[in-house]
Amino acid sequence: MHRPLVITEDHALLDDLVRIAAAAGAQLDVAHAPAPARPFWNLAPLIAIGADQAEAVAATSPPSRDQVLLVTRDPDDPDTWRKCVAVGAQTVLTLPTDERRLVDRLADAMEPDPRSGSTICVIGGRGGAGASVLAACLALRASADHLRTLLVDADPLGGGIDALLGHEEAKGSRWGDLVAREGRISSSALQAALPAFGDLAVLSFHRGDVAPIPAQAMRSVLEAGRRGFDLVVVDLPRHLDPAATEALSRAKTTLAVAPADVRGILSTVQVLTEVRKHTLDVRAILRPGVLDDDLAMSSLGIPSAGNLPDQPRLTATLNRGELPRLGPRTVLGALCTSLLRDLLPAT
């Protein structure tokens, strides 16, 4: 893969750019004048032109292209925007003020095969409603359909969604390895770090003591997931913490799993009161119970997305480290297929 190109003879500016590129996980090709840069002009994913070389670059009349930036360390230079137009740059970034923006631009440029994945959150209206099972099955069904899928465990006290999948011993990073990181995470680095099973990558918790996920860490993971995956499924805790509200704010759709009994519906209504403060599209997945479906749905006051059937031998299946069968002829498999068809953009 080609590297971003920097054209500058300003050594102080170059030092800044090399440091910023390292923060974005990128290495640079460097030219101190326009002539050595010419072979890289159409190949580099991004070009950063130092203000000191703007006039010289403009004099060569380089071909028009996107992803060209003018970088300066002088916010008071009255000629900055004239230089920007002259070199065909799309924007001016001033250091150190725009350092964060430049990290993001460089990281974006280095992403292979960028995607625009959808995020679906799943939350239980009551403990034991089956939200984690639905989240896992939805992710498994999507990955079986060759959608690149990221399953994110956002419940620190949920026991680990990797254990639900029967892969608690799988090698790879967990939340504890990621929360200390600040800023952006490359989608390719995230995929390489996580346990993966075919087209499914899983982010769960370590066993033992767990710390809450900082909202910034959740934001970085979900942004990387959006860029690197077709679908991100987030299994949320019922008691919303800052990381959970961050996930909700980025969700295309949130599925609330509600048992159709009196306590189940009352509990789900309380959960929905908090959930709807942070996201717009919330739909119900109803579990069978003593209440009539129409009565249960009218009490919830949100649209129905389907019914989650009971699995008579579910407990024994999960304790063996297995999940229910998800074939297209099974009720649960058909539900997941229907949800994916309704919630994801047509390809």
UniProtKB/TrEMBL annotation:
Residues 7-115 form the Rv3660c-like CheY-like N-terminal domain. It holds the Pfam family CBP_BcsQ. It comes from the Bacteria. NCBIfam families: CpaE_hom_Actino (TIGR03815). PANTHER family: SEPTUM SITE DETERMINING PROTEIN (PTHR43384:SF11), SEPTUM SITE-DETERMINING PROTEIN MIND HOMOLOG, CHLOROPLASTIC-RELATED (PTHR43384). This is Septum site-determining protein Ssd. It comes from Nonomuraea salmonea.
